[in-house]
Amino acid sequence: MLEFDDVAKRYGATIALHGLSFAVKPGEMFGFVGANGAGKTTAMRIALGVLAADRGEVRWAGSPVDLAARQRFGYMPEERGLYPKMRVGEQLAYFAQLHGLSPAAAVRSAQEWTERLGVAARRDDPVEKLSLGNQQRVQLAAALVYDPEVLILDEPFSGLDPVGVDALAEVLVAKCREGVPVIFSSHQLELVERLCGSVGIINSGQLVASGSVEDLRNRSGRRLRVVVPDAQPGWADSIQGVRPISQQPPEYIFELSEDADDQAVLAAAVLTGRLEHFSRVAPTLTELFREAVSPEAAPTERQPA
Amino acid sequence: MTMVNLIARREITTRTRERSFQISVAVTLIIIVGVIIILKVVNGGTKHFDVAVSGPRSGALAAALTHAPLPDKTTVKVRTYPSSTAAAAAVHDGKADAAIDGGPTVVVKSNLDSKLQTILNSARGSVIVNQRLQQAGIDPAAVTKALNVPALSVHKLTGGGKNADAKKAIAYIGVILLYGQLIAFGMWVAMGVVEEKSSRVVELLLSTVRPWQLLAGKIIGVGLVGFAQLLLTAVVGLIVGRATDMITLQAGVIGTVLDVLAWFVLGYAFYACAFAAAGSLVSRQEELQNTVSPLSLLLVASFVLSFQAISNPGGGLAKVLSIIPPFSAMIMPPRVAAGDVPAWQIAVAVALMLVAILALVRLSARIYAAAVLRSGARVRWSEALAR
User: Fold this and answer.
1) For the whole prediction, is pTM greater than 0.90?
2) A92 phi/psi in degrees, rounded to 5
């Protein structure tokens, strides 16, 4: 299990992480979502030892992560980084050796991964000669070439074409099946929803929601979608426990609290005139995310430094 | 150590594969060989003169020219012609360099070599003096014997003995090579650091290696390439110098070469650490000049001062600077080559240099570790040293 335990970090006056805690089980894919500057990259860099935490620790298999453990971590930094003038195959073999593979095994693994990610034909070219999409594939290969025990990928899907996205998703799912915990961050929430068993939503350096997408949905309460073309704005305002999430006439979406009565909403809708649509809806991850990071939902105010 | 080894090996393969490096090796070798050959042509080669003699004194002139003591690396061949016209014709046809008939003029095609002029003057002079002595009834042989006083032999109180000139020449070449090599490979280390920073590959590297391992591997790898290049230059230079008779391979000369190589190692260790720290402060190659310029300036100053040390190896300035690091790296080798340096001074210079290197290794590892992951604006020295 990969655990973040109360990890905090500040840069001068700015607090980047407030005390982040979550865990990813072996074989679990964890989607890390949050606005730009929310602290995702900082958290990942701390896990990789590229940054030092001010407080708290990251543990792998029960013990604090040290350099030896990180040798077995696959990492794709947010800012892509490879030697531009070094050949693809040699570069991958070099990274494999830095992570403990023998020279022969490193060369073999570099071949295997270039084939698997569709850049085998470019093995003898310097990285800078490749298209950005292919550089991204090489970057991913650099994180996978030594068969890591943990995968931490910062925005791995950004910049990939749909074919690349599918190829990467397939590789990540396969890694998960091998029992590797996978953490990745992304702004493509549909993708996160499709791939991840669990998600963590981070806002201003704090985890504001985490768990399976299903849990988050259940936690957010029942939702109703009502289409009433003749209704006047505010037609449902007087019903107890009903909060409008989206009002774009003729479509209204409401969130109902535990004790609210959906039948009361139906009755009010019928009274407005024509009722075209009335149904329970499940919130998408995008909606959950918007709610979680909206200012009124933030559990605590950002502390002034 | 495996990490350092891997990193150093990558540096060696990447560097030696670079086109610019291969060209610079070739250019250095061409310059070294070219300089030796030019020196050989300008003042090295044996000069040969053909002299045409004629007239009543031709026999005496020929004898005087053949038996006269000649300057080094000069040979003279004499041919007798029946008339001064025939002798002049031989000069005109290029068969002879000069024609004399015992009279007050010498016939040449366009100009007279100064060495040959001296030879001809003294030969004609001796013939005429002999004639006048005989006319005066004095035995020329007795006069010659009386005039024969050997030249002064030189006893040097200080200075490099027999091979002093060769050693001095090697000191010059050595200083130029040392300067070029230190500045080029120091810059390479700095540029390598910036390359890793600007391409952001350093983040990937530092998730699996420690900063000091990355720094050490880079410095060792680039340094080995620099040392190998210097060694190659020295060996080729010595071989060509030997083949052209410009250098005699004696202990002193080889010692000077080894001295230069040893000081390259010390100087490189010092400057490479400093250049690496300077490189780690910036994120783009364009900004590198700002942080390395104090180091380049230090090298240029050492370079200029080292020439002063060659011309006046016993001077106070040379003595002091040859002991103080990092000046010692470029001033001690020419001082050793050009003159006698007491062993204790060399020992002190090496010891001080080692202390300076140790201190700088620690300092630059600290600056490097603090600054290498900070991208964007240039990191100030004070920020990198804080904490």
Assistant:
1) no
2) -65, -40
